């Protein structure tokens, strides 16, 4: 990973943050984006101090196509040859049934998880093709394999991530670029706090009675998929906590 250029969306928290840390430890050059610049600056400081890493941070809402263009103009020219794109930014909103849900929240989830991922992919993959090297790692979810009650919109977006990954793999099959879809089950991050609009008590209940995955578990897997020899493409990884069978089937003590 030494001096590989790694772009991570949603690096201010959870899985994205842990992935940034993991790649920094391996000597990668990091291009990190999210909306929360305070958290990104603090992570940059930590990674520079801890690993002597080269870290560049960018304020970005992945739903904003124009902002993506602007971020790219601000990336130093010699670092625009991105080796690894980790499309990680994403979220869920609420657990309402479709007929009771908030349409504006449908927009936020669909625009972030599907369109944001597509915009970044569209922006970065052409240069990967030009350079004949690259790896797109998408953060899907077990939610994209089986729907669960109250998760309809989120599950649909993660099913889209699976099919965008499969389709992109076909689109660039003639190139050396790899596409990986990582599908985690329950990971303890800020995800549930965001889902429940800041209700920490309700969020904590999601992780009660089960030992969930950690963001570091997923970061290790991201790194592994990026570290296998060039002729090996890990298309999909599905990983759950031991007491989770699918998105909706969890054994709790
Ligand atoms: N936690 C789980 O159980 C789990 C399971 C399977 C898959 N996942 C997926 O893993 C990914 C990371 O989630 P997490 O669990 O690490 O949650 P998290 O701790 O809430 O982190 C989510 C990250 O996404 C960023 N983000 C959200 N909306 C964004 C936007 N419009 N533009 C740019 N960045 C945005 C957030 O940054 P800002 O708020 O600073 O913008 C944050 O850095 C998501 O795609 C999620 O669907 C999570």
UniProtKB/TrEMBL annotation:
InterPro entries: NAD(P)-bd_dom_sf, Sc_DH/Rdtase_CS, SDR_fam. One of its GO terms (molecular function) is oxidoreductase activity, acting on the CH-OH group of donors, NAD or NADP as acceptor. The keyword Metal-binding does not apply. Keywords: Oxidoreductase. It holds the Pfam family adh_short. Belongs to the short-chain dehydrogenases/reductases (SDR) family. This is SDR family NAD(P)-dependent oxidoreductase. It comes from Clostridium aciditolerans. The lineage of its organism: Bacteria, Bacillati, Bacillota, Clostridia, Eubacteriales.
